[in-house]
Every structure is written in C-alpha cells, then in structure tokens.
C-alpha cells in the first residue's frame, strides 16, 4: 500500500480520542458525587452479579487526554504504547484509559469516578491492549473486580471494547465540563470545612452581625430577603464572609480559565431555586444555595457554531460538613450539650470569697432551701454559691464558649430550690441542686420570648467540711454537731426570750434547769435505766404530769422536723379542725386591751408549736400564688371568711408579684380577729408558741403602707430587718415582742393575713430552723449522768438566786391566760424564770432526796442503716432523786401509770342515745365551774353512764390493796363541741395508814388522806348516730 493511499485511509478512519464530560449531567447538585460509586453489599445474590452489571455499564473507553495528545494519530499512539507487537512494560493501562457510561438522569456520557483500589467498590482491571493495523484502532480487554472478603474476590466476564476517536470540539466541551466539575468539588470541599456559623465576636468590623448564632432557618430568612444575586452577596458577607470570599476566588481560579487565554469559562452567580423561587431552601436543617454557571462569550466562541447550548447550569451547594451535618447551628445538638461549667472552688479566704472546706453543709443546704422570695431566688442562690467559687456560675457552651458572651440574652438557668437534696456520699455531704436550662427564641435575636427547649439537670456542690464538734477532744460527746447553725440556735431557745438574771443563768448553765418532782424517781431505778440504755422509758417517766412533768417535746418536735417525721396535715385535714374563738388578756387591769383570738384545735396534728413551724417551712418554699390560695382556705377555717367564699381563680395566673394587691381586694367577713393560732399555742406566745402564732403589729402595718400599691418584692424587702435569731443573737427582747403583740391589728383583708405570715417568716429566717434534712432519718434520745450535787451546795446556789430582786414586774406583765385545756397539761412548757426561785427552795428540805445533773441530747441518723451521725446540743436538767430503797410513792405511781397507759379504749369512750346524752349534757352544764361536790358529780354521771363502773373496777381489781378515790370534772372542750361531752377522770391512791388515823379521830377521810399517786384520764361521751340506740357501752371510733 502506497503512502498516499495509506494517508487517505488514515484520514478516512481517523477519529479523535473520545474525551467526554466528567461531570454530572446538567451540572449536578452539590453533594452528589461527580462519578458514580457502586458499593457491593451481599444480599443473597450471586457474588458476580454486581460486577457483571457494573461492567455492562461501560459504553466507551477513551485514552486519557493528559497522557495522549488530542492531535496524536494511530501510529503515534502505537509508537508510544508498544514495542513492536508488545505493550511496553512501563505502561499502566489504568492511567492511559478512561471508561465512560451514560448517566441515567441526563442520558449524557459521564466519566467513571477515579478508581480506588483500596475500597470495596467495584474497579476495572485493564488486562490487555491490542492494535488493529487494518482498521487503525485499538482493542482493550478488561473486566470488573470487587473484594468481597479478605480472601474472596468477585470477577466479571472479560469485555472487549475499541478505543474510538472524535473531533477536538467534542474534547473542548468535555474539558469545560470537567472544569465545572472541579469547581463544584472545590466549593463542596471548602464548605464542608467551614465551622458552625457564628459571627466572630472579637471581630472589630461593625458590619458583621455580632453576638449571633445562626440556625439554617435564620440564615435562609436573611438571604431570602434579598432581591437579587448582588444583594445576596451583600447579606452573605455580613453572616458568612468566608463563603463570599470562596465564590470570589472560584470565579478567578485556574479551573475557571480557558487554557492559553486566561479568560473565564463560566460566569458564576447566586440564583433562585426553580421549585421554591428562593435563594436558599432548608430541609432537615441542611441549607442549600444555588449557583448558576453560564458559559462566557469567550467560551462559546471556543466551542464554535456547532455547539449545542442546553441552557444554564445550576449547581446545588449543600451547606453541610463532610459527615453530612449542617454547618449551621443544630439547636437540638447544641442544647443537648448545654450545662453549667464545672465548679472551680476557691482555695483562699478573701474579702468576698469563702473556702468550701470550712463551710457547714447543713447550713448551706438550709440556706438554699429557705429562699422564699421567688423574684430574687435565682440571684440569691447564685450569691450563695459564687463566694465558694474561683469563677462565678456560668453556662458551659462547649465549643462555643469563646464565641458566645456570658451575658447572652435568651438563655437562662433556673434553680429548683424546693427539690434540693443533701446527700451523704460515703461520709461526705454533697448538695444536689436541681436546675433548669431554658432556651428562648430571643437567643437568636428575635423578639419572641417563646421557649424553644428546656431541660432539667443537677448541680453537685461538694467539698464541705465535716460538721465535727470543735470541742470534741474535751467533750464527752463525740458525735457530729447539730445540722446547721440556725437549727442549733432555735433548738437552744428554751425559753425563747430569756430575761433571767445573771445568777440564774449561771446556775442553769452549771447545774441545769431545775426540774423537781413531788414523787421523784428512785436513784437505783434511774441508774438501771441508764445502764440498760432504756432512754425512752426514762424520758417517759420524766415527762409524766404526776412526776417531773418535763416537756421534752419542745426539743423533740424540732428533731422530728429535721428528720421529716412531723405529721403534717393537708388542707382537707385542717378543714376538719375545730375553730375556737376567744380572747386573751394583755393587761388584767384593762380588759379593753384583750386580743381576739381564733384558734384551730386538733387532737392529731400540731400538738407542738414547732409542728406548725414545720408546716410553715414547707409552705414558704411554694410560689406566692399557692401560698395566697392556701391562706385563703385557712382564713375560711379560722372563721375570717364565709365558708362559701371562693377565690374565683384570682391567684391562678403567673403574676406572682401581684399577690398582695389581689389579696388586699379580698375583704374578710369577720374583721374582729387579731391573733391566729393552733391548739391554743397563743397561750405560750412568749415562748414556743411564738413560732406558730400569727399576729400583725401596727408598727409593721404602718411601715409597709397601703398593700394595694405594693409588689410582693417590695413587701418582702421591707421585712428583711425583722429577723430575730441571727448568729446566736436576738434582735428583739421580750418587752419588744410583748409590745408588738399588744399592737396587733384586726385582720381586715386577706393581705393582712398574708403579711402576718410573711412577717413570721422574716422573723424566723424563713423557718430555716425547721427545714427538713432528709426523709430517711430517724432519731433517739440519749441520757448521760452528770455531777451529783449535795443538798448543802444546792441550798447555797439557790440562796444566791433568791437574794436577787424577784422578777415580780416580769410576772405581772405575763398575759393573763384564757381558759387552759386540761388535756394539754403535758405539752405546757416549764416556766424557767419562775420555777428555780421557789420550787427548789420548797423541795430541798427532804432528807431523802439527792440531786443530779442529767444531760440529754438526740442522735439523728440514717433510717436505712440505723447509723447515727448527727447530734443535737446537750441540754442539762437538775432533778431530785429518792434515795429510799423502797419508795411507796414511786411504786404506787408506777403501778397507776402502767394501768393508765394500758387501759382499753372501750373503758374511756362511750356512745349513748339522745335522751341520755341530753341528761349528761345538762349535768355537766349545771356543775361546770363547781368543785365543792366532787363525789356527787361522780355519782350523778355514773347514774346515767352505768358502764363507768367497769372503768372504776379496772383500777380497783388491779390495785385491790390500795385505797382509791375517783373524781370527775367537765372538760373545757365541751364549749367547742356539740356531739361529744368530755370529762376528766382523776384516779388517786390514798395513804391508807393516815386514813385510818383520820377515821379514829372522826375526821373526813377523803379530805385528810395523803395522796400517794394520781393520774388523770379523759372520758368521752358521744351521741350515737342511731337515734334508736340505747347502748351506753359501745366504743367510739
């Protein structure tokens, strides 16, 4: 074949190497890989099926234009690749050959993605390349391969395909498309490396949107407000300057330049999505922007007239990271990681800083629990915690700590103080303070206060010092201190306002509070009880009315409150209390100064004033609206409001600041009452009864002013200076308290009642002393013997006291008590200011008495482990003891007490029909106040209540050798009950020997006989519900 014919044949068969677009058809959306990646997953199909389908997709194979020039002909390529008929050893076919396929969406040729031999995706094996001199072309033999396991590989069948030639204009089109692919990939790569969009708060450029975190929706709203592409870039520069810089650099990048001409291939601008007509669309928190790529006029000129223009190319840019997460703030993820920063404790004492290891955990816990002002509560709690810290409390924003200012609006943490816990963690006390983080819409610079998210967390405050007694080395008592200073202060206040002389105070401090009995314990018996550690039995004996009548409950009631064992009624329980309205005398010479009292009486609840204080301590932690609604109901039970009055949801809204303004509008129906009390605690108002008695002094009413103009915060702030017990000192003495009590105004509105409650709260430090430590605590009383005191020493000490001026003025100022309930004798506190001056003097004449200082305290511990770790302060009492081996008084009293304590209820509670009830009622009415005919009173009652004989027989048969006397008196309770009549039955054991002497002398035996033992019991006679019933011996419930 001659050269001319050969040249003609070459010309005829000559084809330019196929270089096709390596882009997704139509300039694919961002996030879609330019080449198709096929991942093999074994799903039960034949292992070769995937590779067979993969290899069938190949439509063309072309030489790589980067390796072979577009102007190369068959002979040039053959010479480059072959040595004779053999492929050169240096040739790697996968570098010289590129396979193409038709895309399923645009049906245009697309280059396969670059092969990665290390993945499990199918790859091509180019096995052999041959040439055909006759047809002037090359034939490639190849197959697909996929690694299934480490040992197994799936292969497809071999495929033979020619390598074809096309003209250069086709090549240029592919080159432009390839350039656009590179541009797209570069944008995607850059965007995926952007951090979450937060404006740079250290940036001084005021044009940037500062203090702002952007969600995808915020970003979309800002950008979509743009009118055109130019304005998009202006808005974008304020939020996302890195993005605008990226687009600017892409426009001038080498990928966007026509080779050898340095003119742009594409004009790139932001465009609206055709479907939404928005510059930004958002789906699943991923924002997508749209770039329109138009071929420049220079590029069109290069392609020539034969180029088919398919319209503008739209590139979808998904603003997401490499792991397919939004580059904008994910609110849920951001909020999930929010918490308070770890606490860093201060280690040096400074002017405004404390060292936590020197703080009592119980004091700190109680202070947190006692914050009653909901408007200042959160800031007050911060003020309690921050002095312990090297850095103040603040939120931990994680990776955004440097970006978000500490004072950023729209996010807050709120403490839940009522649910704070004090936890014993392996002997170390930890305060667990719940708090809520709330995220508002305004956090993102919107005007809305809508809550986006909120969650509950717990702040652990630890590192407190162990509350061990500092005097433990010199003390006989080695337990921990009482839990909290305020608790210790109130525990020790007995009496509450102490006006004792210095000598009397010194006497009590040295020897103890004198508590003497007419029938004292035998010394041997006391020693045995202490030796057996039967402390409860000893406390019972010391508290018997017929013995020492010592009121331990004033101390134990406080211990009950700390242990969570106080029996607290709900409002439904209180609604069933009896209401007694009476007066109490302030000055016996001036009846006009009497105060009107309303008292709620219960035989089950509130037996001690501290029980009421515990009830108040629980309510002071509630929201003001709940407190107001509670006292609205209590006002009805106290008889201040009619029972049918309704609050009409007046306190149901969230305007807590307005409770006094609202309460001022609620006028009371009964405007005569000045004092509110429970179980007549007002009778002891200058001692323990002060805790539970509510009254409003005129001075406070005047100081606060018109309540209808006062917010709750203003009222509470005005009461702050009323705190009485602070750091072991009292701000008021007894005379001041008396003066305030005399000034008690009449309650006229519900606001007055609320003000009296909040005043009591301020006086008693928000009832801090009664704050519960835990619900899983128990306690026990412990006695330890102190020094024995000789009669001579005691007489000398008493002489020192009695030489002082008698406090007659003080006794005159004591209010003249209204009628006292007999059944409450056991709970009446001892009057320490009166007893030592007279009682010791009268009782020390007995040669058979010895005197002993007896120490007692309470241990408090974990109910579950029965381990005691806390101890109350030690109290001292000075008691007299009998030294007789056999003391008939002690023996008889013990027998009588034992019988009285175990008497069946049926012998004290009776039901009678209407007729009998009327007769008994008339009987008690006609004899009320008469004490001159006790025997006839007993006989008269026994006439109508025949089964009373069984009660008398119960004692007579058990004490058959003793002479007994039975007396019956009406009870004060009959004035406040209509369906029950109560009597007091007094059982006395008389000295039979003296009675015999009296009989011989002809004297009245009942009046002359000495009483060896005495015990009073309450008998209840109830009207039967069945009007036909005539049974008098049925037991009442």
TrEMBL record:
Residues 807-836 have a biased composition (Low complexity). Residues 803-845 are annotated as: Disordered. It comes from the Bacteria. This is Uncharacterized protein. It comes from Mesomycoplasma ovipneumoniae.
């Amino acid at each position: 074949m001659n050269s001319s014919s050969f040249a003609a044949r070459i010309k005829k068969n000559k084809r330019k190497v196929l270089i096709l677009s390596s882009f997704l058809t139509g300039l694919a959306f961002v996030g879609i890989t330019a080449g198709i990646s096929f991942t093999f997953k074994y799903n039960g199909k034949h292992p070769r099926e995937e590779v067979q389908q993969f290899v069938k997709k190949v439509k063309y194979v072309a030489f790589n234009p980067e390796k072979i020039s577009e102007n190369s002909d068959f002979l040039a390529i053959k010479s480059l690749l072959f040595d004779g008929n053999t492929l050169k050893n240096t040739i790697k076919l996968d570098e010289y050959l590129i396979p193409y396929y038709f895309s399923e969406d645009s049906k245009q040729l697309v280059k396969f993605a670059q092969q990665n031999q290390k993945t499990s995706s199918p790859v091509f094996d180019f096995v052999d390349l041959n040439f055909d001199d006759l047809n002037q072309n090359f034939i490639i033999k190849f197959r697909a391969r996929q690694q299934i396991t480490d040992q197994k590989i799936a292969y497809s069948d071999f495929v033979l395909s020619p390598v074809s030639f096309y003209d250069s204009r086709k090549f240029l089109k592919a080159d432009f498309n390839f350039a656009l692919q590179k541009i797209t990939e570069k944008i995607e790569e850059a965007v995926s490396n952007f951090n979450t969009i937060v404006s740079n708060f250290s940036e001084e450029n005021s044009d940037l949107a500062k203090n702002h975190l952007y969600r995808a929706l915020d970003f979309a709203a800002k950008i979509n407000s743009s009118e055109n592409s130019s304005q998009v870039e202006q808005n974008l520069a304020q939020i996302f300057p890195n993005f605008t810089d990226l687009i600017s650099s892409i426009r001038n990048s080498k990928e966007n330049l026509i080779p050898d001409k340095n003119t742009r291939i594409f004009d790139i601008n932001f465009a609206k999505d055709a479907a939404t007509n928005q510059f930004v669309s958002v789906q699943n928190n991923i924002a997508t922007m749209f770039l329109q790529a138009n071929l420049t006029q220079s590029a069109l000129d290069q392609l020539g007239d034969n180029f088919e223009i398919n319209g503008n190319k739209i590139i979808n840019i998904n603003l997401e990271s490499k792991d397919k997460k939004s580059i904008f703030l994910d609110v849920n993820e951001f909020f999930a990681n929010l918490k308070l920063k770890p606490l860093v404790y201060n280690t040096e004492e400074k002017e405004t800083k404390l060292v936590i290891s020197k703080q009592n955990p119980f004091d700190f816990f109680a202070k947190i629990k006692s914050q009653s002002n909901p408007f200042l509560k959160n800031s007050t709690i911060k003020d309690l915690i921050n002095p312990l810290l090297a850095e103040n409390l603040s939120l931990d924003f994680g990776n955004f700590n440097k970006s978000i200012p500490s004072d950023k609006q729209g996010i807050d943490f709120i403490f839940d103080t009522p649910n704070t816990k004090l936890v014993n963690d392996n002997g170390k006390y930890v305060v667990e303070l719940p708090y809520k983080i709330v995220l508002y819409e305004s956090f993102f610079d919107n005007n809305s206060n809508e809550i986006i998210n909120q969650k509950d967390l717990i702040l652990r405050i630890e590192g407190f010092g162990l509350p061990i007694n500092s005097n433990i080395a010199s003390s006989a008592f080695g337990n921990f201190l009482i839990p909290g200073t305020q608790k210790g202060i109130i525990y020790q206040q007995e009496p509450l306002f102490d006006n004792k002389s210095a000598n009397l105070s010194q006497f009590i401090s040295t020897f103890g509070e004198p508590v003497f009995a007419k029938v004292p314990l035998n010394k041997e018996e006391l020693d045995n009880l202490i030796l057996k550690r039967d402390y409860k039995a000893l406390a019972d004996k010391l508290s018997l009315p017929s013995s020492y009548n010592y009121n331990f409950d004033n101390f134990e009631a406080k211990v009950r409150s700390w242990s969570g064992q106080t029996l607290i009624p709900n409002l439904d329980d209180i609604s069933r209390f009896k209401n007694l309205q009476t007066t109490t005398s302030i000055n016996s010479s001036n009846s006009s100064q009497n105060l009107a009292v309303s008292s709620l009486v219960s035989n089950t609840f509130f037996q001690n004033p501290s029980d009421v204080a515990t009830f108040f301590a629980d309510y002071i932690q509630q929201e003001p609206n709940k407190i107001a609604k509670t006292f609205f109901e209590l006002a009805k039970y106290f008889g201040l409001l009619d029972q049918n009055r309704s609050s009409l949801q007046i306190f149901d809204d969230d305007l807590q600041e307005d409770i006094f303004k609202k309460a001022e509008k609620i006028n009371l129906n009964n405007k005569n009452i000045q004092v509110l009390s429970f179980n007549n605690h007002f009778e002891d108002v200058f001692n323990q009864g002060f805790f539970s008695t509510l009254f409003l002094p005129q001075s406070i009413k005047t100081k606060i002013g018109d309540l209808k103009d006062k917010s709750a915060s203003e009222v509470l702030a005005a009461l702050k200076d009323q705190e009485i017990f602070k750091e072991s000192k009292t701000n008021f003495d007894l005379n001041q308290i008396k003066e305030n009590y005399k000034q008690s105004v009449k309650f006229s509105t519900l606001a007055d009642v609320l003000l009296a409650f909040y005043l009591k709260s301020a006086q008693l430090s928000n009832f801090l002393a009664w704050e519960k430590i835990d619900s899983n605590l128990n306690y026990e009383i412990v006695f330890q013997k102190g020094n024995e005191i000789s009669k001579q020493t005691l007489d000398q000490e008493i002489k020192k006291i009695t030489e002082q001026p008698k406090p007659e003025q003080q006794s005159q100022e004591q209010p003249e008590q209204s009628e006292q309930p007999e059944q409450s004798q056991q709970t009446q506190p001892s009057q320490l200011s009166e007893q030592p001056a007279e009682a010791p003097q009268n009782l020390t004449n007995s040669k058979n008495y010895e005197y002993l200082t007896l120490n007692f305290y309470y241990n408090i511990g974990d109910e579950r482990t029965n381990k005691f770790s806390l101890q109350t302060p030690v109290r001292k009492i000075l008691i007299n003891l009998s030294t007789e081996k056999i003391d008939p008084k002690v023996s008889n009293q013990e027998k009588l007490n034992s019988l009285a304590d175990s008497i069946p209820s049926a012998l004290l509670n009776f039901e009678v029909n209407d007729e009998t009830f009327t007769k008994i009622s008339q009987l008690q009415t006609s004899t009320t106040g008469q004490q001159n005919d006790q025997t006839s009173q007993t006989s008269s009652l026994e006439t109508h209540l025949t089964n009373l004989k069984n009660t008398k027989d119960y004692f007579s048969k058990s004490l058959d050798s003793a002479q007994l006397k039975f007396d019956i008196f009406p009870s004060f309770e009959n004035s406040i009950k209509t369906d029950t009549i109560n009597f007091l039955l007094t059982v006395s054991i008389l000295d039979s020997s003296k009675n015999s002497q009296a009989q011989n002398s002809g004297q009245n035996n009942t009046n002359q006989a000495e009483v060896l033992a005495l015990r009073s019991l309450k008998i209840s006679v109830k009207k039967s519900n069945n009007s036909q019933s005539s049974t008098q011996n049925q037991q009442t419930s």
